[in-house]
Amino acid sequence: MKTFDRDYMMTQLKNLLAIDSTSGQFREIQDYVAGEMTRLGYKPQFLRKGGVWCDLGGEGHSLCLLSHLDDIGLMVRHIYPDGTLKVVPVGGLRASAAEHENVRVYSRKGVYTGTVQRVSPSVHTTPADVYNAPADYEHNICILLDEDVYSAAETRALGIETGDLIALDPHFTTAGDFIKSRFLDDKACSAVQLTLMKYIAENHITLPRNVTAYFTFYEEILHGGSWIPPQTEDLIALDIAPVGPEQTSNEHKATIFAKDSRFPYHVELKEELMQAADKAGVDYVVDVFTPGYGTDCDPALQAGYDVRHAAVGHGCRATHGYERTHIDSLQQLYGLLKAYILG
């Protein structure tokens, strides 16, 4: 019985990263995940706003595992007189983290490529104080389209308008067992969740309790978990565990969250996860994330759901930019979930 299908997990991660899914742009990636659920023998169910979940089997005391598939990105705010685009962030994308990136602009007439640049991009033609100013969407950042357009009218003739979503290139690559890409938050956890679903389906496992798997599309704009499957009693978010100077999270280990910037996680459910990890020999740490961090559990609690909530994740260097993790951390996260669900 294959316990961790690394090849499948990496294939799913690569496939998910290849689909643009800036928050609100859910249709293509939802169809992909629903198709994979169906192929594994599950019956996907959908949210009107975007979101897909399915029942993995088992009876009673229902547990929901949820991860998110939306990415941070940009939106057209205005078209400048020279045909370049003024943009605003969708989710927490700093201008400095977007600068110099290749992008895809999704207009009603088609998809166009471009680059995030300074309004005055050349050191040789820009006063030093202007060139050295911090990147700022409001004042000195724009998107230069890969089209022969030099006026607002010419850009609008392409079908590009205010409100169009813009996706950044993820730049997925590997270096040995390190994995580097934008949007490992949270497509890495989603790939792990699909791998666990595959293991359950292919080995015809009868779960000791009811489990649902849920993929949301609005976590980055704070309402992904505002609806959860109605039978849910325990809710576990799968999300990125940032590595930092005062963090215990590690690129080679799984992380069990004790608290985020909003709430502590449920003490008893956290303890159950730790006991399962200890019993199974999972390499994990417990961590606290404070500045601005939250998971899809938070909107579920704020919406009034009576659930025990927890969060687990993989150690990852950098967030909301170009991120890096290691296959070890994803394997340990998989082992933690498997140990807790199967008992």
Describe the protein in words.
There is one protein chain. The protein is of the alpha/beta class and 343 residues long. It folds into two domains: 6-71 and 172-342, Zn peptidases (Aminopeptidase), CATH 3.40.630.10; 73-168, Beta Barrel (Elongation Factor Tu (Ef-tu), domain 3), CATH 2.40.30. It has nine helices and 18 strands. Strands 1, 2, 3, 12, 13, 14, 15, 16 and 17 form a nine-stranded mixed sheet that branches. A hairpin with a 5-residue loop joins strand 1 and strand 2 (52-57). Helix 1 packs across helix 6 (184-202), helix 6 (184-202) packs across helix 9 (327-342) and helix 7 crosses helix 9. The protein is globular, with a radius of gyration of 21 Å. The mean pLDDT is 97.
Provide a brief overview of the structure.
This protein has nine helices and 18 strands. With 343 residues, it is α/β, with parallel strands linked by helices.
Describe this protein with a few key phrases:
18 strands; 2 domains; 9-stranded mixed sheet; 343 residues; 6-stranded antiparallel sheet; Elongation Factor Tu (Ef-tu), domain 3
- Uncertain stretches of 5 or more adjacent residues: none
The count of helical stretches stands at 9
Number of strands: 18
CATH class of the largest domain: Alpha Beta
Percent of residues in helices comes to 25-40%
Major sheet attributes: 9 strands, mixed
Radius of gyration: 21 Å
Q: What's the rounded overall pLDDT mean?
A: 97
Would you give the CATH topology of the largest domain? Answer: Aminopeptidase
Strand content: 25-35%
Distance between the termini: 17 Å
What would you call the structural class?
Answer: alpha/beta
Identify the overall geometry. globular
User: What's the order of the H and E elements?
Assistant: HHEEEEEHEEHEHEEEHEEEEHEHEEH
For the record, the CATH architecture of the largest domain stands as 3-Layer(aba) Sandwich
Number of domains: 2
